[in-house]
Amino acid sequence: MVVTENDSEERKALQEYLFREFEMKDLGLLKYFLGIEVSRSNKGIFLSQRKYVLHLLQETGMLGCQPIDTPVEEGLKLYVEPNQVLADKGRYQRLVGRLVYLAYTRPDLAYALSIVSPFMHNPGEQHMNAVMRILRYLKSAPKKGILFTKNSDHQSIKAYTDADWAGAVDDRRSTSGYFTFVGGNLVT
After folding, report:
1. Is residue 126 part of a domain?
2. 106 Cβ contact list (under 8 Å, min separation 6)
């Protein structure tokens, strides 16, 4: 359980209550939780999954690959081709699932994952190639993450959205996305 609070007396009271009700111990400041590394500085708190990325690259044999600057090629439109060469469905699903988990601290992967995720049940070679490109992109910057800054402007809320209307080649579905910032920090 991760306990956090900006009022140290409140946090201490909650911890004391939890200690009375449950058998637990305080492990100190959070450093690593469920594959997410937590670093603190005078600027704020930085969350990354560097170890997770490096482990994923090693496990897939991509640790020595040539890095690339973008997770998806510009204008890429994936679809199910008739008579397509099928990819290993289990491997594809595992890779995309692991990349989705990585997106918690890597919002730069959101669009690329929205392109490859719809093909979980019928992946072709072109879909697997798109996933491998994402891995090559991760190789270029495994340390990227999210910085939650200390900020006096904690009441401002900004949201951005975009959509690709009827952009899917095979079923004309639309793709949309959004980002919400509270006090300058990305929250959704």
Report:
1. yes
2. 49, 144, 145
Average confidence (pLDDT) over 168-175: 77
Contact between 148 and 44 under an 8 Å Cβ cutoff? The reply is yes
Q: pLDDT tens, 143-157?
A: 999 999 887 777 889
Q: How many CA atoms lie within 13 A of 67 on its CB side?
A: 9
User: Measured between alpha carbons, how far is residue 162 from residues 74, 76, 100, 110, 146 in Å?
Assistant: 16, 17, 20, 13, 21
For 50-59, 67-76, 77-86, 125-134, which range has the lowest pLDDT when averaged over its residues? 77-86
Task: Let me know if residue 104 belongs to a domain.
Answer: yes
- Asked if residues 187 and 178 have their Cβ atoms less than 8 Å apart, the reply is no
Say yes or no to pLDDT of 124 above 90. Answer: yes
- Residue 57 inside a domain? The answer is yes
Full domain range(s) for residue 137: 34-153
- The number of folded domains in the chain is 1
Q: Do the domain assignments include residue 124?
A: yes
